[in-house]
Amino acid sequence: QVQLVESGGGLVQPGGSLRLSCAASGLTFGRYAMEWYRQAPGKQREFLTTISPGGSTYYADSVKGRFTISRDNAKNTVYLQMNSLKPEETAVYYCKAVLDTLGYWGQGTQVTVSS
After folding, report:
1. What does the buried/exposed string (b/e) look like for 99-115 if buried means 16 or more CB atoms within 10 Å of the residue's CB?
2. Mean pLDDT of the chain
3. pLDDT exceeding 70 applies to what percent of the chain?
4. Pairing of strands 10-12, 109-113
5. Which residues contact 47 (CB under 8 A, 6 or more apart)?
6. Alpha-carbon span 7 to 66, nearest angstrom
7. Which of 12, 26, 27, 81 is nearest to 51 (CA)?
8. What is the tens place of the pLDDT at every residue in 11-64?
9. Sign of CA dihedral 31, 49, 20, 101
């Protein structure tokens, strides 16, 4: 079955950086667009960024210039490099694999931005 496993979350100080990973299995990774979302307590899940199978990227305004999405199709993994993190970006971060109407979510990884 399809599995997406996020890792790399943790506690970081304001202004700091983290790199999240999402390892996929059970699907033909190179055919899927990969996306990152986050959900803070009491808030709706928020779209952050997407990368196409060919490597084209798109970012929400809230993270443009600070976050970078990348993928390694040989490792079936997508990454999210997050710089200049803010306390309000404390949330659970999720990856999602998308192909036409198919969508698969990971279980999420907690990111806490606090001094």
Report:
1. eeeeebebebbebebee
2. 97
3. 100
4. parallel
5. 35, 37, 60
6. 19
7. 81
8. 999 999 999 999 999 999 999 999 999 999 999 999 999 999 999 999 999 999
9. negative
Residue showing tokens 């997407």: 50
What six digits make up the tokens of 3?
A: 């599995």
- Burial class of residue 41 (count of CB atoms within 10 Å of its CB; 0-12, 13-18, 19+): exposed
Whole-number Å distance between alpha carbons of 79 and 58: 14
Containing H/E element for 110? Answer: strand 109-113
Q: How many CB atoms lie within 10 A of CB 57?
A: 12
8 φ/ψ angles, rounded to the nearest 5 degrees: 105, -5
Which amino acid, residue 11? L
